Structure formats: C-alpha cells, structure tokens
Amino acid sequence: MIKVGTAGTPNSAEKRTSFHGVTRIRELGLDAMEVEFTYGVRMGNATARQLKKHAEENNVSLSVHGPYYINLNAREAKKRKDSERRILESCEKGALMGARNICFHPGFYLKQDPDLVYANVYDELMALTEIIEKKELGVRLCPETTGKPTQFGSWEELMRLCSDVPGLGMTFDFSHVYAREAGKGDFDEALKAMKKELGASFLHDLHMHFSGIIYTEKGERSHCDMDDCGEPGFKPITDSMKKWHLGGTAICESPNLETDALKLKKML
Ligand SMILES: [Zn+2]
How many domains, the chain? Predict the structure, then answer.
C-alpha cells in the first residue's frame, strides 16, 4: 500500500500551518504530509510535539524535507559542518513530530570526479547514521534522487549508497529521475535494478516524490502541475508503482499539491 500526501500544507488548508495542514489532509482523505524545512528548521519543540499528537489522532503519516542549503561534498569544512547540522536538526525535529523519513538533497559534484564525491557523501552519511543511532532518534535518512546532472544523486548512486550504508533509505523522485536524463530516465530500469540490489522489501517501504516537471538538456528546470506540462504524466508513474509492487509514501510536489495527490491516489 502507498500512502499519498502533499509536500507541505495543502493549498486548501484553513491556515498555512502544519497543524492545519494535517487537519486538511484528513478531510481530503489523503494519508501523508511532508513538513518542509526549505529555508531552515524553524519549528519549536512544543509545536513539533503537538503536531505529532495531531497527526496520530488523524492517522496522517509525517515526513520531513530538510533545508535546501545542504552540500555533503562542500569543499569548505564549515559548509560541510553546516550541512550536517541542518540534517541533524531535521532529524531531531522529525523525531519529535513522529516522522520517520527525512528527505534532503545530498549535494553537488562541483566538477569533481564522481567516485571521489561518492566517497565524501558516503563518509558523511556513515557519520550521520551513527549519530542518529546513538541518539535513538528512530528516523531514516532518505537522500533524494536529483533532477540535474550537476547534482550528486542519480538513482544508481543512491542505490549504491543504500547498499553500503546500513539503514539508509532514499527518496525516489520520479520527476527528477525522468528529468535528470532529459526525459529519458527509465523508471522500470531503475526499479528493476533496485529490486535486485536492495531486495523487494526495500521497494515495499520506499519514500517517493512526484510532480509535473519542466526540463532541458541540463535536467530539471521547474516543477509544474501534472496536467500542465504532461511529463512524465500520471500513467508511467502509477504503472511502475503497480508493476514493482511499490509501498511506502508518495508525496506530491506539484504546485497544485492536493489536486494531483488525489488524482494519483484515485489511480492507484
Ligand atoms: Zn522531490
């Protein structure tokens, strides 16, 4: 079963708060919501605890999207430290709100050799995983497949990380996988390889993103509503979800959030 939800508070919520967002998710008959810490982790601990209670009472599954300013391959030690801190803050706040999956964009190649970048990101994720375990936060790091070839995070790289770093998850963003290869990204190829490498159980518990996407030869340009740009479209996504028996959570990142989330849920 796939829980379907929105990236942040639904547009039709009474107020722009996560609390009202959860209320609206339940009213709409959706199942999940991703709390967006786009520009920093700014939620207070009391609010996070309150949100946990509210989400549990409404049977809404929460996840967290970490800040955008993260680069685990930054050249400057300070930038790497800041990235670690932002991820850990997301994890700690996520733990308080009862979220499990912590999504973030892992970083940039900065024109370096991809194998070197892999090693740098691997070291960072191993260290972070250890801290999360020691603190018993009960969350799972889910680095996201990225939409541009300049960003670290092809599905191949993330698949390799998931087999090398114990307990690591991934955010499989259908639209990014599609746009990273300028519309040639192949869901079946990726999911088939992931099943072989990581096992069927990994696919039964996958964190996913979807939206319409506008792209060029350089990959992702912007998100759009599914119907507006028509790519990758609902059908290839829901077909793959069914074909590979995917389970877990699918978060809609279209600007119209709940409209596309509800359409996908209906198609499933
Ligand atoms: Zn995404």
Answer: 1
